[in-house]
C-alpha cells in the first residue's frame, strides 16, 4: 500500500524545518581530530540544517572564495549522521586518492570528507561535517537546456557515474538516490561532476557479507519516485543493480526530456507497474521515449545488461562502460572530458516543466546538493518536497482554476468556490487530474530509528 499522507502540521516534517540557529561569521568549530574550522557566511539550507562557507581557522576572514563548506544541523537529527557513516568509511581523501591512482582515473566524483564533530552553543548541541565546495547542480542545467541534454553529454555523465558507483559499491555502499539535483559541478572545474547527498546511502555488504533480498511493505517506494528502482518500490533494500537501474532512467530522461510515468507520480503503484512493464519490454519502453530515428541503441543495451543482474550480482562495470563508449563512437564523438551543455531546439523549459509533477522523496536533505546555489529556479524548488522555501504548492491548482474561469460563460453568475471544486474534481483533462490535491507525503524512514 502507498504510504498515507500526513496531515499538515503533524508528524516530524515541521520539526525538521526548525534549523540550527544561524551562527555568525567567524564562529570556530573544532572537529574530532582537534582541527579548527572557521565559518563564513551561510549560503543555503536543506530540510535539516544550514550550510556555510568555511576554511581552516586563521586570523583571516572567510571570504566568498572559500574552498570548503560545512553542514550544521541539530545533533538529534538523522540524515547528516547517516551521511557521516558513509563519508567516514569511504570518502577520506587518502582513500579516494589511492583508488584514483590504482584505477588510473583523472578524478573521481565522490566528495571528500575533511572532518566532523559536535559543537555546543547556547545550551544546544549541533553536528557538523566539513566538505569540499561545489558549484551548480545538473537539475538547474537541465532546466536551462530545455530539459534535454545532448547525447554526447548524457553518455559522458553515464561514464562518470559508472566510475563513482563502482567506487562506492566496492566500499560496501549503494547511493539509492541518483538524479540531476544530486549531481554537482566542481566549484573550480565545470567539466567535473560529483555525486552528492548520501542521506539514503545503504551499506549493502557490511564486512563483505551481502544483505539478503527481503520485501518490506513499510519501506515501499523509498527514494525519488520517478527514478527509484523496482526493488525500492517493493520495499527491498537497495543493491548495486538498483543504482544502475536508476542511472538508466536518469540517462533516458536527460535525453528525451520526460519518462512515460511522470504524469502520475502521485500514484506510486502506477509508477512501479510502469517500471515493471519497462523491464519486461525495454524495446517498447524506448519506443515510448524516442522516435525510431532518435532511439539510442546504447541506452537500450545498457538497460538490457542491468536487467540480467540478480539482487546480489556484482555488475560488469567495464562492459557497461564499453556500451556507452560505443554510443559515443556511433555519433562520431569521444569522451574528451569536456561537459558541454546546450539547449535543444524545439523544447522549451516552461512547456516541459509545467507538465512535470512534484517529486516525492522519502528523505530530502539537500546538504551540498542545491544548497550552495542560491539561483535555484522556482520550478525546481517546487519539484522537491522540502526545499528552502517550504512546502507551498499552488501553481498547478491555480492554473486549473484559471482554466475553469475562462471556460465559463461571462453572462452567467460566478460559480461558488464549492461548485468550482466539484467541477474541477470531475475533469478528465490529464493536466487537471494531476493537480487534484497534493501528492501523498512519504514517511521518512529515519523517523522510525
From TrEMBL:
It is an enzyme of class 2 (transferase). GO terms for molecular function: ATP binding; protein serine/threonine kinase activity. InterPro entries: CK1_Ser-Thr_kinase (IPR050235), Kinase-like_dom_sf (IPR011009), Prot_kinase_dom (IPR000719), Protein_kinase_ATP_BS (IPR017441), Ser/Thr_kinase_AS (IPR008271). Its main location: cytoplasm. Its EC number is 2.7.11.1. GO terms for cellular component: Cajal body; cytoplasm. It is found in: Cytoplasm; Nucleus, Cajal body. It catalyses: L-seryl-[protein] + ATP = O-phospho-L-seryl-[protein] + ADP + H(+); L-threonyl-[protein] + ATP = O-phospho-L-threonyl-[protein] + ADP + H(+). This is Serine/threonine-protein kinase VRK1. It comes from Oncorhynchus kisutch (Coho salmon). The gene is VRK1.
Amino acid at each position: 500500500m502507498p504510504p498515507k499522507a500526513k496531515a499538515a502540521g503533524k508528524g516530524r516534517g515541521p520539526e525538521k524545518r526548525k534549523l540550527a540557529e544561524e551562527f555568525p561569521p567567524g564562529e570556530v568549530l573544532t572537529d574530532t581530530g582537534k582541527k579548527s574550522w572557521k565559518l563564513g557566511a551561510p549560503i543555503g539550507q536543506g530540510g535539516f540544517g544550514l550550510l556555510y562557507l568555511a576554511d581552516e581557522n586563521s586570523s583571516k576572514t572567510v571570504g566568498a572564495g572559500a574552498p570548503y563548506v560545512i553542514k550544521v544541523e541539530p545533533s538529534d537529527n538523522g540524515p547528516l549522521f547517516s551521511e557521516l557513516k558513509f563519508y567516514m568509511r569511504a570518502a577520506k581523501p587518502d582513500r579516494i586518492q589511492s583508488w584514483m591512482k590504482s584505477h588510473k582515473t583523472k578524478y573521481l566524483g565522490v566528495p571528500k570528507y575533511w572532518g566532523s564533530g559536535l559543537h555546543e552553543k547556547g545550551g544546544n548541541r549541533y553536528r557538523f561535517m566539513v566538505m569540499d565546495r561545489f558549484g551548480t547542480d545538473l537539475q538547474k542545467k537541465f532546466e536551462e537546456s530545455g530539459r534535454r541534454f545532448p547525447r554526447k553529454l548524457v553518455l559522458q555523465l553515464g561514464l562518470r557515474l559508472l566510475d563513482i558507483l563502482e567506487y562506492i559499491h566496492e566500499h560496501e555502499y549503494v547511493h539509492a538516490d541518483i538524479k540531476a539535483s544530486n549531481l554537482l559541478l566542481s566549484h573550480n572545474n565545470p567539466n567535473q561532476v560529483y555525486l552528492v547527498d548520501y542521506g539514503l546511502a545503504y551499506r549493502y555488504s557490511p564486512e563483505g557479507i551481502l544483505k539478503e533480498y527481503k520485501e518490506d511493505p513499510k519501506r515501499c517506494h523509498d527514494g525519488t519516485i520517478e527514478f527509484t528502482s523496482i526493488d525500492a518500490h517493493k520495499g527491498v533494500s537497495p543493491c548495486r543493480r538498483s543504482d544502475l537501474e536508476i542511472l538508466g532512467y536518469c540517462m533516458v530522461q536527460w535525453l528525451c526530456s520526460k519518462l512515460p510515468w511522470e504524469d502520475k507520480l502521485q500514484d506510486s503503484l502506477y509508477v512501479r507497474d510502469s517500471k515493471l512493464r519497462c523491464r519486461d519490454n525495454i524495446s517498447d519502453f524506448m519506443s515510448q521515449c524516442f522516435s525510431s530515428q532518435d532511439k539510442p541503441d546504447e541506452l537500450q543495451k545498457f538497460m538490457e545488461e542491468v536487467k540480467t543482474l540478480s539482487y546480489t550480482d556484482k555488475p560488469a562495470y567495464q562492459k557497461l562502460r564499453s556500451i556507452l563508449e560505443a554510443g559515443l563512437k556511433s555519433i562520431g564523438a569521444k569522451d574528451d572530458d569536456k561537459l558541454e551543455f546546450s539547449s535543444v531546439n524545439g523544447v522549451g523549459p516552461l512547456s516541459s516543466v509545467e507538465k512535470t509533477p512534484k517529486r516525492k522523496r522519502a528523505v530530502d536533505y539537500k546538504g551540498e546538493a542545491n544548497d550552495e546555489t542560491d539561483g535555484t529556479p522556482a520550478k525546481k524548488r517546487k519539484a522537491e518536497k522540502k526545499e528552502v522555501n517550504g512546502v507551498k504548492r499552488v501553481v498547478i491548482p491555480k492554473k486549473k482554476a484559471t482554466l475553469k474561469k475562462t471556460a465559463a460563460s461571462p453572462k452567467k453568475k460566478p460559480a461558488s468556490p464549492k461548485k468550482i471544486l466539484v467541477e474541477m474534481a470531475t475533469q478528465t483533462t490529464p493536466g487537471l487530474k494531476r493537480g487534484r490535491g497534493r501528492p501523498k507525503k512519504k514517511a521518512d524512514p529515519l523517523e522510525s530509528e
